[in-house]
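Duplicate of earlier report; HNH domain-containing protein input re-posted below.
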Amino acid sequence: LRELTVHHIDHDHTNNPEDGSNWELLCLYCHDHEHSKYTEADQYGTTVIAGEDAQKDVGEAKYNPFADLKAMMNKKK
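Output:
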């Protein structure tokens, strides 16, 4: 739990609603990634919308390398 940080979804540190709807708990690495997106956007001339993931157009990961693990293990017997 000590590795978790509170992140303001809209990046406005003065927007602190009582229901916590502008906050999310992120690990240190994810929090750093959220803020580095803006640095990279400035560097490469792209835009980032607060609260949206730059990779959302890539889609959801569906590959499971362990899907047939039991069958693969049984083959070796």
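Helices lie at 28-44, 69-75.

Merging into the original ticket.
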